[in-house]
Structures are given as structure tokens and as C-alpha cells.
Amino acid sequence: MNKEPDKFVKIPGSERTALPNARKVRDVDPNEQILVTVLVRRPSVTPDLQNINAHAINQRSYMSREAFKVEHEIDPEDLKKLKEFAHQYGLTVKEINEAAGTVVLIGTTEAFSKAFRVELSHYEHPNFTYRGRTGHVHIPDSLVGIVEAVLGLDNRPQTLPHFRILKESEGFVRSNALRVSYTPPQVAQLYHFPTVIDCSRQCIGIIELGGGYRSDDLMSYFSSLKLSIPKITDISIDGVQNAPTGDPNGPDGEVVLDIEVAASVAPNVQIAVYFAPNTDSGFLNAISKAIHDSTNKPSVISISWGNSESQWTPQAMQAMNRVFQDAAALGVTICCASGDRGSSDGINDHLLHVDFPASSPYVLGCGGTRLEGSGQSITKEVVWNEGKDSGTGGGISDVFDLPSWQADAHVPSSPNPGGRRGRGVPDVAGNADPVTGYEVLADGQKFIVGGTSAVAPLWAGLLAILNEKLGHPVGFVNPILYSLANHDSAFHDIISGNNDTNRETGLFAAQPGWDACTGLGSPNGTNLLNALSKNLSTH
Q: Quick count: other Cβ atoms within 10 Å of Cβ 538?
């Protein structure tokens, strides 16, 4: 008797449309080999998070990566069903991250098209070409409830790096703006980072979705600052490696900015750089590897790449949010740039948008300011907004609900139709304006760079210092930061400016307390350390 054919159903949230200004130009080569990532269900980490957040910092009992794998790995029966399905369609399992619940499959585009009932084509965009699909991804009903997401069939560039090189000719530099630049240690000094610290026991993970660095640049840079050259480990994801392009205006500028800022403000810290493709699949695999990396064991991860929530599929955001929850359970802090294109996040649809992954409730969203001062004295700090798509991202999430720890932060309803009560972005801020930017060295050239891309590694460096000083990782720090009393002076509250980069007055403006431009404010590192020290249990 013939076996009844499988009934296929849509994966919720997997629908894709062609990019604006992109057109289908040809079919894909049916024999081309591609990688696709499948996210498989696992036991929930929610009970672990509830237990962790109920305790003082030094009483938080984080799971080890080894214990997490044992308690939360993929059910063998689920994995067996997925392998049988893959074999049926001529696909091969290339890699399994059992702790993260991801399975990477390899096979031909023809086989994947049949397996997931999609039509793959090449699309031409004015700036690039990509392999794309439209509509939903489908799975057989036997895998419903087991497979939560399928990523990588479409390999359009998923994110943008959030850095800006200062150029005299660019319109975003206002003629009346005071122009000054700082080394990262000078910014750390203005923010009163704790000093006389050795972070050699700490590791910061950095996610990079393109480009690379040159070792001789880093040697020259750290030598010029009279700092020891950090130990850097490169981790290749899906075949992507450290590959500098020679153009600092491209992704090299992002890679070098992240490393030079993080490593120069946290002396002797170890750096692990995870190089991955700039696709939803590559991004997920990179953060999964970093969070569950039992070799390098980063306690803080810096992410300076992102895109408007509207440019992601819901399945991809939920997949990444799940692994961010893993980070919280493991005591790993994730710092994410909030974007560089103001409250619209560069989307020209007359609505306001926030950047993902900064909008995930399990990451620390990092916004931007313009910083003026010298030594340890800040003379002026306002919202970064240099006009026309050059200003800090921030606003209200269209995807994630208002988290409990923001309940008393007076997060407004979204100005978008419907007035949604969502997660407020960012959580914290730091210097990001190119006009008051960071001095970096990339591809043999010195530049002044800004963008919220600088703020994520700046906060990652501060958190590495705090982890070392406290003797315990702060981990998922958001609930603690929002609970700090105002008299602790852990933040420099930004009360001037807005982040509407396309009009004169913004819908979101800086104000006392939390706001959708700079969050709680920029850090006073020493006061923050003292405030967190009070959070330590004496029992």
C-alpha cells in the first residue's frame, strides 16, 4: 500500500516579499549547494530566567554551558524526525548546535525548493543581487510544533552596520557643531569607568557580518595608546572568515571600531570575533555559537549590526529572541546598537520604527549622544541628531511587548496608528555623534568614527570591567539597571534633543528619566559599580 503523501503547512511568520526596487532576473542553478538553518523546539528557559531575576547579582545561579546543553538540548525523537525528512529530500545534516537547537542542512537549491515548497530565484537590486523567495516556507505536518523556523533559503543582506565616518563634505555635519574627537580611553575617562583593572579573565564576543581587520593596524593602534595588544580569537561561521576588504568605509570600519573600542576601554580583555554571512541564518548561527561557546566563554557580547523590525520576518526575530533568552540564563549580557537613522530607522513610510536586535527585551539597547568635555568633566551631552538620517535610533517596538522591568519607566505608547504599548528602545546611551567621534585606525588609515556601533562595544567594555570588579557576571542586567535609585547617579541623564532626523521637532524628545532617544542615559561607570555593589547579597 502506498504511503499517503505528506500534507504541507505554512510556517507562521515566514513570509517574504521581494525587496523594494529589486526584480527577479533568473532562476537559481538547481545544482547550487546552499546552507539552511532549521530552528528546532527545545525545553523552555523561562523558569530559569524567573529564578535568576529574583536574586541579587552574586546569588544569581547561572547555568553552565555544559549543564544548559544537558537540560535544554533537542529531543532525540525530534532530531530523528528532522533527519528522516532531510534524507527523504536529499538533504544532509552539516552541523548541529544541540544547546541552541539549531540544525544546519546542506543540499542543492532544487532539493530545498522541494523540501520546503518554495521557489528560489535570483533578484537584482540596485546595490546587490541576492537569492530570494516570496511567500511562506512550508513544512510537512509531521514537523509542525517541532520546527519553529527555517532560515537561509533567502540570502538577502539582513542587516546594516551602525557606524558613521566623519567626512567634512557630508551634509550630516552641521556647520555650527563643535568638532572634537576622542580616543576610546578618553571617552571612558569622561564616563568615569573604573580604573586600575585587569580584565584578562573576561572575554567579550563581537559579532561581525562582513569585512575584517589587519593585525598590523591593531598593533599600531594599541601601541599608540600605550596599551597591550589584546588576545583576539577568530571564529568562522558558515565558512566566513576574517577578510578585510581594504576599504574602511565598508564593513572593515565596523569590525575595527568594535575591536578597538571594546579592547581599549577594558584593559587586557580577551576578544572573540564571530565572522558570519550577513543573512538571517548567518546572524542566528553567529549569536548561537557565541552564546553557547564553551571554549572562549564570552560573558558579554557586542552587536553593532541591525535593521528595522519591519525588514525582518517574524520567524527570524523570534528565533533570535530565543537565543537571547539563552544568554540571560547563562549570565551573558548582550549589547546592541540601536541604529543610526533616527526614529524612522531609515524607513520612508511615514511611520516610526526601531532597530532589531536592539528591540529584543533580552538585550541592552545602546543609543547615542553628542559628548563634549575633557578629562573627567562632561561640559555638555545631548541626543545625537545631526539631521537627515544621522541620529540615534529609538522608539517603541512594533513586535515586543512592554517588559515588566520597564513598567515604571513611563514608556509612552507608540505614535504609530493603534498606539501600541511596546518595548521601549534604547535602554542606555553613550557617545555616538561623528562630530564628537572616536579616533580609530582601519586599513592603514586614521579616521574619526561615530554611530551607535561605537556605543555597543563601549558598554560591552564597561560590563566586562563590572564583571571583573564584582567577581560575578551581571548577566541579564536590564531589570537591575531600571531598578537603580536616582540618587545612585549611575547615569548621566540626557535632557536635551530629539531623534527625529527628518523634521525640526521630534515625536521622541529627551526628558528627565528614561526616554526613547537615550534610554536611562550615559554611564557613570564608578557610580554604576557602586550601585551594583549594593545589589550584592551579604548573606
A: 5
Q: Give per-residue pLDDT as tens, 53-62.
A: 656 777 777 8
475 pLDDT tier (thresholds 50, 70, 90): very high
Rounded CA-CA distance 414/504 in Å is 19
Please tell me which residue in 398, 453, 468, 515 is annotated as part of the active site.
Answer: 453
- Consecutive H or E run containing 204: strand 203-208
Asked if the bond preceding 20 is cis, omega within 30° of 0, the reply is: no
453 is catalytic: yes
Q: Is 340 a catalytic residue?
A: no
Averaged pLDDT of the chain: 92
Q: Which residue is it, cell 569585512? A: 211
If you count them, how many residues does the chain have?
539
User: How many other CB atoms are there within 10 angstroms of residue 73's CB atom?
Assistant: 18
Residue 175: predicted pLDDT: 39
CA-closest candidate to residue 152, choices 208, 97, 180, 112: 112
List the catalytic residue out of 48, 254, 381, 386: 254
Model pLDDT, residue 488: 81
Count of Cβ atoms closer than 10 Å to residue 108 Cβ: 18
What per-residue string of b and e applies to 482-492 under the rule 16 or more CB within 10 Å gives b?
bebeeeebbbb
Give 517's contacts (C-beta < 8 A, 6+ positions apart): 367, 383, 392, 394, 429, 494, 497, 498, 499, 506, 508, 509, 510
What pLDDT, on the 0 to 100 scale, is given for residue 248? 87
Q: Helices (DSSP H) in 452-503: which residue ranges?
A: 452-470, 478-483
CA distance linking residue 167 with residue 173, whole number of Å: 8
d(CA 521, CA 371): 12
Q: Exactly one of 258, 260, 398, 500 is catalytic; which is it?
A: 258
pLDDT digits (tens, 9 = 90+) for 139-167: 999 999 999 999 999 999 999 887 777 76
Q: How far apart are the first and last CA of the chain?
A: 69
| pTM above threshold 0.85 | yes
Tally Cβ neighbours within 10 Å of residue 113. 18
Q: Are 73 and 99 in contact (CB under 8 A)?
A: yes
CB 134 within 8 A of CB 103: no
